Amino acid sequence: MTTSDYGAAGSDSGVTDKAQQAASTATEQGKHVAGVAKEEAQGVAAEAAEHASDLFQEARSQIEEQSRTQLDRLVGTLQSLADDLEQMARGDGAGAGMAQTLVTEVSDRARTLGSQMEGRQPGEVLDQVRDFARRRPGTFLLGALAAGVVAGRLTRAAKDGGGSSGTGGTGSTGGTGSTAGGTTGAPPHRPR
How many domains would you assign to the chain? Predict the structure, then answer.
């Protein structure tokens, strides 16, 4: 071998070493970048989970607050209803008998129900209703039917009462309540 052969072999070995060093550095840098990316992804995932948890807690607290407000309104309505029924039952004696007894009983039960619900969480009230429905499904369904009928009647009465205040005094025929013989004095006919 000549000296030039050794130089060429040495230079090939230097290039190979440099190539290996470059490959090793690239591998290390790649691992470092992958590690940093993994840490960043974990950080983003943890932050997203924290935000989701915060949003869930906020939504839950709003639902609980709204449920509490609605329950408080229901308690107030029941107590007002109980007071109204009791006043009606104590009237001047015109409604004595079975009606007065029934109204008094409804008043007592509405007051008891309002007292039982006061200070409770909405979930507790819902659990009690579910338990009652399981124990006495027929009674529950009859109560739901009665509540629906009462709510429908109240809604209809409110609708009819609110819509009739702006009418003029003429009936559905456009007349003024008079006949051929003169004024009847009766209010005009209003269709239902």
Answer: 1
